[in-house]
Write a structure and sequence with these properties.
Elements: E1 5-10, H1 17-25, E2 29-34, H2 36-46, E3 50-53, H3 59-73, E4 80-83, H4 96-128, E5 132-134, E6 137-140, E7 145-148, E8 151-152, H5 157-168, E9 174-175, H6 176-183, H7 204-216, E10 223-226, E11 230-233
Helix pairs in contact: 1-4, 2-3, 5-6, 5-7
Length: 244
Amino acid sequence: MAQRSILIVEKAGGPLHTVAHNLQQTGCQVYLASGTRDGLQHAMEYVPDVVVLSRSLAEVDTLDLCRSLLRNLGEDSTPAILIAPTGGDLSGIDDPAHDSRLAESLALDLLAQSVKTLTFRARQTADSQAVLECHGIRLDPRFSLVEMDGKRLDLTPTEYRLLQALLARPGHVLTRAQLEEAAGLPAKDREPEGDSEHASRTRRIDVHVKSIRGKLDRKGILIETVRGVGYRFREPAWNINSLN
């Protein structure tokens, strides 16, 4: 998955530098902007996944920046916009200074977690439209097209979604439950895993995988069965010719 990017917009010397450091430690690319004008310039240049707006900014400036982001970046590139939380009501606290710091710390932790969630979702959406290619098998979501060594493969919609899920994470094992979800099977149609009543039945996912393997011909061995778990697509470093 590509590196997540976050733009934090606040007044100079604001409290969100703590969040910036936290997110940088998790592998995010973080940009800091001082004020809304600087924030818009950064957004146009870097096109981040998420924009965090500090409450230290004037409300009118915040609204203007939101409108400018929506207008200038376009529907496909518009980041998620998050307003930084503030501390809660501290009335009745014996040591308000101490608890103010505690409330601020909790609020910043919540903000950091929210940013992580939003960027993960944004990347999932972007990844679902990425062209996937491995071992001469190419899947292009823009045209719902699958090719093997330059030749088009005729897959059903369910087979297409299963292959896309496997190609997106070569070398990683996906359980049948994960593949059922990726295939878009209705929950009521999914077979409970571990249910003895269904133990002797051929799982629907297994049938679809067998069909995909047949259409991949000699490259069907690239979809490996992991007993008792599910399936995985062989990583790029694996050499199919070694079995010839």
